[in-house]
Amino acid sequence: MHHSTSYRRRPRGSVATLVALPGSALRAGVRVAAAGAGVALDTAIVGAATAAGVGAALLRAPVTAAAAPAPAAVVQLVADVAREAAGGRPARRCAANGARTWIEVRGLDGPDGEALGDRVLAAIRDTPGVATAELHRPWCRLVVSTDPAGPTAGTLRRVVEHAEAEGAATAPRGVPHELPGDDVLLVRRGVSAATAGTGLALTAAGRYLRLPRLHGGAAAPVLVSDYHPRIRALVESALGPGRADLLLAAGTSVLHTLTLSPASSAVEAATRTVLVGETLAMRRAWRDFEPDLAPTRPRPAARAGRSVPPNPRPVRSSATPTVPAGPASPARQRPGS
Question: What's the pTM value of the predicted model, to 2 decimals?
Answer without folding.
Answer: 0.68
